Fold:
Amino acid sequence: MSAPILEIRDLRVWFGNPPDRVDAVKGVDLTVARGESFGLVGESGSGKSTILRALAGLAPTWSGTITVDGESLRGTRRSPAFHRRVQMVFQDPYASLHPRHTVDRVLSETLRLQGMDDIDRRIGKLLDDVGLGRGFRFRYPHQLSGGQRQRVAVARALAGEPALLLLDEPTSALDVSVQAEILNLLADLRVERGLTYVMVSHDLAVIGHLCQRLAVMQGGLIVDQLTADDLRAGRADSAYTRELIAASRSYAGREA
Amino acid sequence: MTATQPGPLLSVRDLRVAFPTRQGVFEAVRGVSFDLGRERLGVVGESGSGKSMTGRAILGLVRPPGKVTASRMEFEGKSILNLPERQMRAVRGRRISMVMQDPKFSLNPVMRVGDQIVEAYRQQTGAGRAAARQRAMEMLEAVRIRDPERVFGAYPHEVSGGMGQRIMIAMMLASGPEILIADEPTSALDVSVRTEVLRIMDDLVTDRGMGLIFISHDLNLVAQFCDRVLIMYAGRVVETLAARDLHNARHPYTQGLLNSLPRLDAPRERLAVLERRPEWKDGPLDPALVDASMIDAFPGGVR
Ligand SMILES: Nc1ncnc2c1ncn2[C@@H]1O[C@H](COP(=O)(O)OP(=O)(O)OP(=O)(O)O)[C@@H](O)[C@H]1O
Ligand SMILES: Nc1ncnc2c1ncn2[C@@H]1O[C@H](COP(=O)(O)OP(=O)(O)OP(=O)(O)O)[C@@H](O)[C@H]1O
Ligand SMILES: [Mg+2]
Ligand SMILES: [Mg+2]
Structure:
């Protein structure tokens, strides 16, 4: 097997200083293979977004090692090579889209930064891919619905043609038919371009559909790592994971 | 349900929200009608179909140049359509609250979370500072915030997505509104926390007769949690049904939604996607699928 695209060892992330210090991630190990799709689930507030943010250089204080495609990351500075390889879709797309930039500007800036040509055609294609269509090209964020904003964020992340895509609840604001379109698109891109995903979601069915493996978090720690098959069969080491699986089954189970 | 008052809490007929755009007037809501009793009314629908805009219109929160019209918008029998801001403020938050879809964005970024809950509560109830603080802590605990003291003193950017949702819910429920409009209130919560939060809303509906409008993309959740469901597509309600019948929906859009759900117990290679048909947007509404109130608003079908 080739070298993993992402390797995290003993990652700890904290905010502030004692006595107000918050330990958000308390020693996490993760390895994600190239071309793999990896899920991150768990309790609200358990540190899922913080792991992705530390990777992206958005968490000021962390320790441990993070290696992306052989490059060892330090602090919050990220190299141009990193930015070409890694893109992120944030949990709250409103906050991540500049309020006074149109969709067109958001996408064209990303495309130019990545040195792409043929910007016009690419923007049209991206908007079609995420099911928005070209009519949305000159809208501002406040003129979009929640799910439309989320799709702009997905389009922006795809615009850079990254090797590794960090997805924080990418479909939670979408109706399930648009969710299906985005999940199919992600699955296709993984096959066509060998993309790697790390995806956070509370929806175990979504994780089970897109991901081969997943980690379950609680209180800043990974309490379980399992395969999608384990997930479907309900095979899990920790009581917390079994509880999550049971709850998600009973609630989807009515029509089954 | 405690059906004490005659007549619905909220009655809406032919609600329309329109925005002028470069390409002409865009109607985000195109004739929505419904009554809300002391019940859990689910609203499900396409992204961009006007769910949030319907909620905002009820509370007078549609920003200009957006225009809101309706042939009726009554709260306990009195019109609240386009009320002057001063009068609307007596209703908004106090009697009708809304949990916004982007909770962290809707909070004031430079004010501590706890102070925001306290301030809102005092404004709505006239309570003293100490009582309001105590109420805020109670509410944070009720929505299962693990360390309420810390979160009370945190700024919105210092809390997680799901904590932001719970803070917003705590803030909106603190004063005991008669109607709560909850826009995707639990999409960032894990199942166990979600169960708790739903229980709080549920208790308010059953014990205190609150009316709940529950906007969600989660069909299984809506089917289990709500009493009735409105299905929206392109600004209109295309189907209304009892929540327990959701899985036997008859409108092809609703059926398409149900088919596109990924399922843990039945994995498949590709998810089914919808073939959206123009008649769902512009064709006449099917009288067998929507409430009579909808049809009343559209004599002779649709304009
Ligand atoms: N900038 C910050 N300052 C202080 N604390 C923070 C900051 N960012 C995050 N935290 C804290 O770190 C913890 C983990 O947050 P994180 O956003 O990673 O949770 P999460 O697992 O993504 O939860 P959710 O599913 O609710 O989004 C939370 O307790 C949060 O309050
Ligand atoms: N200021 C505006 N100008 C023009 N169109 C707007 C404006 N604000 C919203 N819209 C449009 O109004 C429609 C309804 O938006 P709304 O936010 O109600 O959708 P929604 O049903 O809540 O969708 P979602 O599930 O994605 O949140 C959308 O198509 C949106 O693009
Ligand atoms: Mg998060
Ligand atoms: Mg919305």
Notes: The CA atoms of residues 119 and 204 of chain B lie 22 Å apart. Chain B has twelve helices and eleven strands.
